[in-house]
């Protein structure tokens, strides 16, 4: 996968899915689900304040007769209902609308109807960047504050699932740090090396893991060669594992 046009083509070939939208009364959300419907990527169930949703849809010339509508004005209850639709297999995926992430996550983690799997939940952002012949997966920029090495392992595994779903069979994972050499005083460089060693022992599969890497020598072959780094991931990373949420969020928003 090189760009989102390829992702859209890939999605179309697999037929439309169903999205459950939590708190749908938002302009950008309605524009996105309408595009997905027209492209035959996905149909959507809209959960939220339907009166407000109708007002927004009217301004956008979106016909809501193409959607299933569930009117729940309370954002916590709407989030819980949207999650329940996925839990009951009435929808394939959940989309966050005009609601705080913390409220949606509370619904996702609900013990009775939530989407718990027993694994760490993590955030993966997918980017297509001009000048690169591959897409980038940045993780975790939003959920895990200061993950230890075992949580980072699970974050890698989650990101690999996303990459695999886009037909990237063996993604290359770079454990990012401020520098590409292990420094005992910089715990993230130590943990990056531990993650590489976990991969080498077969404890992390479905990808190639290397670290520590600075950002430049993770994404640029020229920068990696300049530093004398010889590793399959060097300059060729698909997945960029941030050391913590602060670094990840800054990179994600840059």
UniProtKB/TrEMBL annotation:
It comes from the Bacteria. The keyword Zinc does not apply. Pfam families: PTA_PTB (PF01515). GO terms for molecular function: phosphate butyryltransferase activity. InterPro entries: Phos_Acetyltrans/Butyryltrans (IPR050500), PTA_PTB (IPR002505). The keyword Glycoprotein does not apply. Gene3D superfamilies: Isopropylmalate Dehydrogenase. Residues 5-74, 76-253 form the Phosphate acetyl/butaryl transferase domain. Its EC number is 2.3.1.19. It is an enzyme of class 2 (transferase). Keywords: Acyltransferase, Transferase. NCBIfam families: PRK05805.1 (NF004472). This is Phosphate butyryltransferase. It comes from Romboutsia maritimum. The lineage of its organism: Bacteria, Bacillati, Bacillota, Clostridia, Peptostreptococcales.
């Amino acid at each position: 996968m090189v760009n989102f046009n390829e992702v859209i083509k890939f999605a179309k070939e697999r037929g439309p899915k169903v999205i459950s939208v939590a708190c749908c009364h938002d302009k950008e959300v309605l524009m996105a689900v309408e595009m997905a419907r027209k492209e035959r990527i996905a149909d959507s169930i809209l959960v939220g304040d339907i009166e407000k949703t109708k007002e927004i849809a009217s301004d956008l010339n979106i016909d809501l007769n193409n959607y299933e509508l569930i009117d729940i004005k309370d954002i916590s209850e709407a989030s819980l209902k949207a999650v329940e639709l996925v839990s009951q297999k009435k929808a394939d995926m959940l989309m966050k609308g005009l609601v705080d992430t913390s409220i949606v996550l509370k619904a996702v983690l609900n013990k009775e109807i939530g989407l718990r799997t027993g694994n760490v939940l993590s955030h993966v952002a997918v980017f297509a960047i001009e000048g690169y012949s591959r897409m980038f997966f940045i993780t975790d920029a939003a959920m895990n504050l200061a993950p230890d090495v075992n949580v980072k392992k699970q974050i890698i595994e989650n990101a690999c699932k996303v990459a695999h779903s886009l037909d990237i069979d063996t993604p290359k994972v770079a454990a990012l740090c401020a520098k590409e050499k292990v420094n005992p005083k910089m715990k993230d460089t130590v943990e990056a090396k531990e993650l590489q060693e976990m991969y080498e022992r077969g404890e992390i599969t479905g990808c190639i893991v290397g670290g520590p890497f600075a950002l430049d020598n993770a994404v640029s072959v020229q920068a990696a060669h300049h530093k004398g780094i010889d590793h399959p991931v060097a300059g060729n990373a698909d997945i960029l594992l941030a050391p913590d949420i602060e670094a990840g969020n800054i990179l994600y928003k840059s």
